[in-house]
Amino acid sequence: MTETRFDPSTLRYDANGLIPCIAQEERTGEVLMMAWMNAEAVAKTLETGRVTYWSRSRQAFWIKGETSGHVQELVDLRIDCDRDCLLAVVRQEGPACHTNRRVCFYTAVRDGVEVELMEPLAD
Amino acid sequence: MTETRFDPSTLRYDANGLIPCIAQEERTGEVLMMAWMNAEAVAKTLETGRVTYWSRSRQAFWIKGETSGHVQELVDLRIDCDRDCLLAVVRQEGPACHTNRRVCFYTAVRDGVEVELMEPLAD
């Protein structure tokens, strides 16, 4: 069976050259967050083993945790069936969310009401 | 503490009125797929308990599994910190992927090469 070498340019990016990447914790299966990458961020992620997104607001590479220390060590990078979404299985150091919660998805809709599932971690 | 009733219009949609929604299997933690919803699809999902996306290609509501039987029963709908991404915890009936694989993320990049993690299920 022929091997396909991975080329980031073969992924399907949106009109802004971005692809969504879901981060999932390897040890627990928690879905931590979703953020965006461009082709170069995908390449850097694979090269360095440290998940690197593209910050749309700052228009700059965002190595997750470079400031906070809450880094994501890449365990496995996966591509979906139509190649327009990524799944990064990671080992997350500390909280993934900038609000200092373990995951970003901390609000649930239950019986029509928003419920907070977890509080920020103590510093 | 005041309750916030959930209003789909308070989510942050993109320029096309869409928000990404990640589907995760409740029983195993598998990340199944990611697809898009508009505000009405979010409302229908909560109302019916059956995950309903918006098909960008068909420009129509897509009740997951309506044709294939591979439905997603909603267990919990969660919102991320900046309200521009959803996480649907679901019970998935059969394979989630249209290629008849359990999940859409069946290709991994390992040592620079694309590796197929699972084959389509037998019919």
TrEMBL record, chains A, B:
Chain residues that bind Mg(2+): D80, D82, D84
Identify the residues that bind Zn(2+).
C81, C97, C104
Per the UniProt entry, the Enzyme Commission number(s) are: 3.5.4.19
Cell compartments where the protein resides: Cytoplasm
Any note on cofactor binding?
Binds 1 Mg(2+) ion per subunit. Binds 1 zinc ion per subunit.
UniProt catalytic activity: 1-(5-phospho-beta-D-ribosyl)-5'-AMP + H2O = 1-(5-phospho-beta-D-ribosyl)-5-[(5-phospho-beta-D-ribosylamino)methylideneamino]imidazole-4-carboxamide
The pathway noted for it is: Amino-acid biosynthesis; L-histidine biosynthesis; L-histidine from 5-phospho-alpha-D-ribose 1-diphosphate: step 3/9
Cofactor or coenzyme needed: Mg(2+); Zn(2+)
Ranges that cross the membrane: none
Keyword DNA repair annotated: no
> What SUPFAM superfamilies does the annotation carry?
HisI-like
Q: Which UniProt keywords apply?
A: Amino-acid biosynthesis, Cytoplasm, Histidine biosynthesis, Hydrolase, Magnesium, Metal-binding, Zinc
Domain (Phosphoribosyl-AMP cyclohydrolase): residue spans on this chain: 33-106
Under Pfam families, the record lists: PRA-CH
Tell me the subunit arrangement.
Homodimer.
Q: What does this protein do?
A: Catalyzes the hydrolysis of the adenine ring of phosphoribosyl-AMP.
Q: What family does this belong to?
A: Belongs to the PRA-CH family.
Q: What is this protein called?
A: Phosphoribosyl-AMP cyclohydrolase
